[in-house]
Amino acid sequence: MKKQQQLYKGSLNTIIMKLLEQQGKMYGYEITQKVKEITQGEMNITEGALYPALHKMEADGFLDVEMDRVDGRIRKYYKLTESGVKETVSRMEELENFIRNMQTIVNPNLKLDF
Amino acid sequence: MKLSAEQIKQVDEKLIDYGFTFMDQRLEILDHILCIVELKDHNTFEEAVTDVFIEQHEYLRIQKSLQWTNVIKQRAPLLKDIFMNPIFFVFWGLSFALYLLLPYNNYSELLTDWDIVPMALPIGAYIMYAYHLFVSKDKATSTFGVLFSTSFVNMFYLYIGIHLVRNLENLWSIVVLSFFTAITLMMYYLFFYYKSKNAKKFKLILNS
């Protein structure tokens, strides 16, 4: 499991961006839970990796921040900016190519339909 | 469990004690911790909080170590905040007038005594920033952006500007000297400007 997490590490930003593209806006804790839910607990994004990644993408201009008051406290929501949307498309293409190439190496007989 | 305003405040204070004194960063950490506390089914709120703080120790440790990285990363936009700011031109004009009013026979004598001003003036500002950095519990990281941006300009004065001023020895030297003096004065002005702007911003968010 530990080794598997290492493989996911390089795709963390792409995963976050894809989720934000689908959901519109999300807050940190929600992202960790959503990933856990989608992968049925197989993948676990640690908070220690998630927040620095979110802050980096915010600084790079890919994410925008919205503060809302929820249950008596402030919640910081992240959403994709215009350049973030373009970046998501490009990163997804990159990731799909990577998966396809890996598949060709690992199991050449199995065809993936992207 | 649904948390009351008093319980939220308790966790916020616990985070301050933990070392999270930058309000902009603490807001997100607070929400994250509270989300987990709400899901706990402990007998008491205190037990749940203690448990979550132990459980989230690694996350809190990383966030705490990143606080200072975030402060260092802050940069105020030099062009917009300083060079296009009307206050900068006021300071520049005033410094220029003050230097000319000083009772010296020539520029050379004046520069001998006063060319050090842009390097000496920031000392007070550094003390002010340091006091705010170490004492305030509700500061924002962006307040410190000015410190880094203006310090960069002051370093430029130390290595290049001061030699330029000394070599000119005419009215232009006073123009350049007052230009750098004005930048130093902006350190003081922008500190209060950003401090008040951030305080208003967070007050608005917290009371929304």
UniProtKB/TrEMBL annotation, chain A:
Any one Pfam family match given in the protein's UniProt record, by short name: PadR
Segments forming domain Transcription regulator PadR N-terminal: 16-87
InterPro entries referenced in this protein's UniProt entry, alphabetically: Metal_resp_DNA-bind_regulator, Tscrpt_reg_PadR_N, WH-like_DNA-bd_sf, WH_DNA-bd_sf
The protein's name: PadR family transcriptional regulator
Source organism of the structure: Paenimyroides viscosum
